[in-house]
């Protein structure tokens, strides 16, 4: 007895007695204890209700559980911005995985609460988003002016990238103005409307106003576009439960288009990947299969599945094209495309179907990039490249020849698809064009690549002169034609008089094409979405063109360009044969650039692979006597760097810091 009393004495400096310390009682977490209590209360409440019902009394309604659910919903309002996508839009296997009785202590509470949360939490987020977005609605007369002045770009966009619930014409923007100002407007619809207004306002013509007023309006609209972008990103894009609907996914695509117009390609890539992940959870990648089975299930069910299939197709096309632009593999390449759609219907080519097939082909380019990085996979790389070129030619052969040569009186989606097709063809032939081998395979690829480059530049002149000046796709289009123009110049001027390829080269035609491209780039250099990008492209093209044209040069000249898809291009105009006798009289100043070239060449040989049009220029010990046989040489230093990031994602783009690294001679003549 005395021993037990001594054990129960409280130990000094502790909150437990000696007996408790010896027994080490188990401590249960508070969450577990609360859940057990709630379960017991729920069981007791159910038992009381059953007893009351047995004796014919009306069961009493308790307010405890209701208050608890309301409190929990309120507490979860701010924390629901993660990946808690509305379960009503999830496929059945996802719902069965995350919503079942095994994951809850109380089955009755688990069945009641999710629906309450799905209703209450998005409502709270929708209200916050609506309040933030309605503050950005422009005045009604300003929206009317935008609608009247902007060109019809929405029908073209809707034809290529169907977006359920979005405006299909400019007039619809003005007609929905009052609806957007109402206190109960849907936040997703409001965000889509504001994004469309921002994209449309960038295309308003400004040729009839002074440069000062034009600059001021451009600055004001740029601020408006950034404000809309920030508000949509902070209030909607950051909440998966709001984006995880069909209208929400369509709104996310519009958000990406606005980022493209501002040059934020890194944000576009990340946001588009995230949007595609949400669409996958919602099961959109299987929607086109459901359209085949829902035809007999009713018109409403088929229409819903068709909208999902069209939206997934738009996401896939956008992902594939953006992956080609920034040289990254598209996320959707592992999903099969719908093969049942007809490419030609009653003699009319369907541009959306053609674009879908194009993106399926372009998704394979990244695999070729991976094969090209290892020497042991070179045979597979070349065979796969020829296979991809064959797929492009087979797709082209399925369309009438008149479709490619039809009159271009007004812009149509067909012209945009043709431009993309030829740009992909240029990229497919680049590995063979960059080689110095003059075999049959490379000879054919040079001819085909030159034709594709000419087609790209020809279509560019029509598109850039017809498309709205500030449309969101201008910067990618400018970049693709810049690459095609540089490749065309290098192919044209790298052929020697003794080379049989020279008989197929028309330098006068190339000079005319370059002049036309640079002229239209100069006219568009002040567009709101260009931001000086085209002006810098013109500077680079003109510098390269002048260097290539200078045959009678007393000493060699050097130019280094960083070109997306190609890499670092070293172009050198060597001494003419007539001047070789005086090569020993070259000054020390004239010989210094060669020393710099030698050091740079040795660095490239240590860690990078160099391709050249002439093997005699591969060494770093080349002397003026060796240059007499090649008045022009150029090499491509393959560094596997992504120069798209430099060209598209820099806030201040400077070609002299990014592309032309140095000019040994100023081009003043």
TrEMBL record:
UniProt feature, compositional bias: Basic and acidic residues: 589-599
Keywords linked to the UniProt accession: Membrane, Transmembrane, Transmembrane helix
Comp. bias (Polar residues): 600-625
Entry superkingdom: Eukaryota
Residue numbers spanned by region Disordered: 1-22, 55-88, 577-625
Ranges that cross the membrane: 477-496
Protein's UniProt name: Transcription factor domain-containing protein
Provenance organism: Aspergillus tanneri
């Amino acid at each position: 007895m005395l021993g037990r009393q001594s054990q129960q004495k409280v130990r000094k400096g502790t909150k437990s007695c000696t007996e408790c310390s010896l027994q080490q009682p188990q401590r249960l977490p508070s969450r577990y204890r609360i859940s057990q209590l709630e379960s017991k209360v729920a069981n007791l409440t159910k038992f009381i209700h059953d007893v009351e019902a047995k004796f014919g009394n009306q069961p009493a309604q308790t307010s405890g559980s209701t208050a608890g659910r309301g409190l929990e919903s309120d507490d979860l309002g701010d924390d629901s911005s993660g990946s808690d996508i509305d379960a009503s839009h999830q496929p059945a296997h996802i719902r069965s995985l995350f919503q079942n009785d095994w994951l809850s202590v109380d089955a009755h509470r688990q069945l009641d609460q999710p629906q309450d949360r799905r209703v209450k939490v998005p409502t709270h987020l929708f209200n916050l988003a609506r309040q933030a977005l309605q503050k950005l609605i422009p005045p009604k007369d300003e929206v009317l002016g935008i609608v009247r002045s902007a060109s019809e770009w929405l029908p073209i966009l809707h034809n290529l990238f169907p977006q359920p619930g979005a405006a299909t014409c400019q007039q619809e923007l003005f007609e929905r103005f009052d609806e957007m100002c109402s206190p109960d407007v849907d936040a997703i619809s409001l965000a889509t409307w504001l994004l469309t207004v921002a994209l449309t306002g960038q295309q308003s013509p400004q040729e009839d106003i002074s440069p000062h007023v034009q600059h001021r309006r451009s600055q004001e609209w740029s601020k408006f576009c950034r404000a809309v972008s920030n508000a949509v990103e902070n209030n909607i894009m950051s909440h998966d439960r709001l984006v995880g609907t069909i209208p929400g996914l369509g709104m996310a695509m519009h958000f990406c288009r606005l980022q493209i117009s501002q040059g934020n390609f890194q944000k576009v890539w990340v946001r588009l990947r995230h949007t595609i992940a949400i669409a996958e959870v919602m099961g959109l990648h299987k929607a086109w299969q459901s359209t085949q089975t829902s035809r007999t299930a009713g018109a409403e069910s088929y229409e819903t599945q068709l909208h999902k299939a069209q939206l997934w197709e738009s996401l896939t096309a956008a992902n594939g094209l953006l992956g080609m632009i920034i040289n990254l593999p598209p996320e959707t390449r592992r999903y099969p495309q719908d093969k049942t759609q007809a490419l030609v219907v009653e003699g009319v080519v369907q541009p959306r179907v053609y674009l879908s097939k194009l993106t399926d082909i372009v998704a394979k380019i990244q695999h070729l990039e991976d094969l090209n990085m290892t020497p042991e996979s070179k045979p597979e790389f070349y065979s796969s490249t020829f296979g991809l070129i064959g797929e492009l030619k087979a797709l082209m052969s399925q369309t009438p020849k008149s479709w490619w040569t039809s009159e271009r009186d007004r812009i149509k989606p067909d012209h945009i698809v043709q431009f993309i097709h030829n740009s992909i063809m240029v990229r497919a032939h680049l590995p063979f064009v960059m080689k110095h081998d003059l075999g049959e395979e490379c000879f054919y690829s040079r001819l085909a690549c030159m034709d594709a480059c000419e087609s790209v530049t020809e279509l560019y002149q029509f598109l850039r002169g017809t498309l709205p000046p500030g449309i969101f796709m201008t910067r990618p289009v400018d970049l693709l034609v810049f690459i095609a123009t540089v490749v065309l110049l290098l192919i044209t001027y790298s052929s020697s008089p003794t080379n049989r390829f020279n008989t197929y080269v028309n330098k006068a035609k190339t000079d005319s094409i370059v002049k036309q491209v640079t002229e239209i780039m100069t006219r568009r250099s002040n567009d709101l979405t260009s931001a000086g990008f085209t002006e810098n492209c013109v500077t680079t093209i003109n510098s390269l063109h002048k260097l290539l044209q200078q045959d009678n040069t007393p000493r060699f000249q050097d130019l280094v360009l960083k070109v997306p898809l190609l890499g670092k291009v070293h172009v050198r105009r060597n001494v003419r044969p007539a001047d070789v006798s005086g090569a020993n009289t070259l000054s020390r100043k004239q010989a210094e650039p060669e020393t710099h070239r030698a050091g740079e060449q040795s660095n490239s040989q240590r860690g990078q692979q160099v391709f050249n049009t002439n093997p005699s220029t591969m060494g770093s010990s080349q002397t003026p006597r060796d240059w007499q046989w090649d008045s022009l040489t150029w090499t491509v230093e393959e560094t596997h760097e992504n120069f798209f990031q430099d060209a598209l994602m820099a806030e201040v783009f400077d070609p002299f810091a990014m592309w032309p690294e140095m000019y040994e001679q100023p081009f003043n003549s």
